[in-house]
Design brief:
alpha+beta, 43% helix
Length: 570
């Protein structure tokens, strides 16, 4: 059988049509005009073939014109196949996997005249017709939407891509001539060096297209988004030549303010909240005429209520976001100022406390040294001195924290013997604290001396703080200090050739609460009632600023905890 035939009698047409239906394997597509008594509803053979394909999970698609006259038939057809509507449909084709039957010519010579059809199995022709059908299918609208439009008397929704320059100009001019209440114009300039004056000029040309007799009653909203700096007077003066007669509201916004970036110039117009235009414009360097004269690459046009409403909402949010951004900038500035004032207050407050503390500490230390002369008040002197020492510690901690947060924390490094410093600290603690608490404090080291270059006062604070915490822990009777060296720290410090000294402070008390342990070195986290939760936070900061690390863990035997820190050895 030839792969290409002209059919001009009803018998051959019916035979080829039936064969094409039976031979459909994966899909069956077609388009054509639908009358009040379509063949698809009258023929059981056609319905049977379609039913068989649908049962196998295959698609059967059909495009037709749905009007008032055939709406009843089309509603029934949509129950059998996937149906879509297309205006001004002409001719008709049916395509299966590898066959094509199309109306070539319609004869009107007499009542018995038969139309002429073309039947083909030519692969190229079948693929060509399938491509045409797919293009029409994408352009057509679902039957349900078209039926709803007819039954409810709704305006037909349009959403189209327009690339022809004349058609773009015509669509814009029609929409602007019909403008009644509101025009919203959004313009985004991709280039940062485009002057505001040029943008104003182009937008003004859009407004000029509107009939001047209407403009006084129309609100015009303009949003200009640019990468460049904004001229503060531009919103006031840029449209002065038209704002006298029109209700024009303008906002110039930076893309940084709205976190919005575009690589091309874009213009969006909404007309009376009913019609939408989205146009990509040519680069400003290429624009020398009116914006509608060959200055637009392409335009998306729609009158769909949901689409236009969505873009109106987006533009309204963009308009409000500029105000929100300005308010947030003011709030952030205010917060920064308050934060600065708060830090200054804490620093000044702590300094104010430290000044009267100095004589208290000095005189209490003198009294402690002379307490043999005041034997009855020895305990009182010890308590006064201990409380003064603790108060001084809290004040110094507050000052150190403000220095860290204000980034004024400075290390005054010097070379000293770390082992000797630890021995001096433990000796002083035994004298001032352990003489009262009666706890045992021992030092173990594999070196007699350990010279390091560090801030001696800061390291002293760190060691005193950790040992004092260990002494204060309930049921802690034995505190051990271990000093040893290693080639690398216990965690991640990178250079394995670097030598470190590790200081370990271990107690046999109740241990660290498991809820607190992960946050132990955070600010204001305390494991005791009389602490402010600042000591370990500062200690860890001091060690890390020296290039070391600090960590803690509960002992494996369930008694007490261990805190370690490392420092690099130069």
């Amino acid at each position: 059988m030839s792969s290409f035939r002209i059919l001009d009698n009803q018998k051959d047409i019916t035979k080829s049509f039936t064969r094409l239906l039976y031979n459909a394997v994966n899909h069956l597509d077609g388009f054509g005009i639908t009358d009040r008594t379509p063949l698809i509803l009258e023929s059981e053979v056609i319905r049977g073939c379609i039913r068989n394909l649908r049962n196998l999970g295959k698609r059967v698609r059909y495009i037709t014109n749905i009007e008032d006259a055939n709406i009843g038939s089309c509603k029934k057809i949509s129950e059998i196949v996937e149906l879509r509507h297309l205006d001004n449909i002409q001719g008709g084709i049916i395509i299966n996997d590898f066959e094509y039957l199309g109306l070539l010519e319609s004869r009107n010579d007499g009542p018995n005249s038969n139309p002429i059809h073309i039947y083909s199995k030519n692969k190229w022709l079948v693929e060509q017709q399938r491509l045409i059908f797919d293009m029409l299918w994408e352009k057509a609208i679902p039957a349900k939407i078209r039926v709803k439009q007819i039954e409810q008397g709704l305006e037909r929704d349009v959403c189209e891509l327009i690339t022809d320059e004349n058609s773009i100009t015509t669509k814009y001019e029609q929409a602007l001539r019909s403008l009644v209440k509101e025009l919203c114009i959004f313009y985004s300039a991709s280039e940062g060096d485009v002057p505001n004056e040029r943008i104003v000029q182009k937008i003004s040309e859009i407004i000029i297209h509107i009939s001047k007799s209407k403009l006084k009653d129309i609100k015009i909203i303009i949003i200009v988004l640019t990468n460049g700096s904004i001229n503060g007077t531009a919103p006031l003066t840029g449209f002065s030549h038209i704002s006298q007669d029109y209700d024009v509201r303008i906002k110039y916004m930076t893309k940084e303010a709205v976190n919005f970036q575009l690589s091309r110039d874009l213009m969006i117009l909404t007309v009376d909240r009913k019609e939408l235009f989205i146009s990509e414009l040519k680069n400003f360097e290429d624009i020398s005429r009116c914006i509608f004269e060959n200055d637009i690459n392409f335009t998306i046009h729609s009158n769909s209520g949901s689409v236009v409403s969505t873009y109106n909402t987006i533009l309204e949010m963009l308009w409000r976001q500029d105000e929100i951004y300005k308010k947030s900038e003011m709030a952030i500035t205010q917060l920064k100022l308050q934060d600065k004032l708060q830090k200054e207050f804490v620093h000044n407050f702590a300094n104010g406390l430290r000044n009267p503390l100095q004589p208290i500490l000095g005189f209490s230390e003198i009294l402690v040294e002379k307490k043999e002369e005041f034997s009855r008040y020895g305990d009182v002197f010890d308590i006064i001195n201990a409380c003064a020492q603790k108060l001084a510690k809290h004040v110094n901690n507050m000052i150190a924290i403000t220095e860290i947060e204000n980034e004024t924390f400075i290390l005054n490094k010097e070379t000293f013997d770390l082992v000797k410093l630890i021995r001096d600290i433990t000796k002083q603690i035994k004298k001032n604290i352990l003489s009262i608490t009666k706890k045992n404090l021992s030092i173990s080291t594999n070196v007699d001396s350990m010279m390091i270059n560090a801030d001696k006062n800061r390291i002293k604070f760190t060691i005193e703080n950790v040992i004092t915490n260990a002494v204060d822990i309930p049921n802690s009777n034995n505190i051990k200090i271990l000093v040893e060296t290693t080639r690398s720290s216990s965690s991640q410090n990178g250079d394995k050739n670097q030598c470190f000294v590790i200081v370990t402070i271990m107690d046999d008390g109740t241990g660290i609460d498991r809820m607190i342990l992960p946050r132990l070195f955070s600010k204001f986290v305390a494991d005791s009632r009389d602490g402010l939760g600042l000591g370990l936070y500062l200690a860890k900061n001091i060690i890390e600023r020296h290039g070391g690390e600090m960590w803690a863990e509960n002992n494996e035997n369930g008694k007490g905890a261990t805190i370690r820190f490392s420092l690099p050895i130069n």
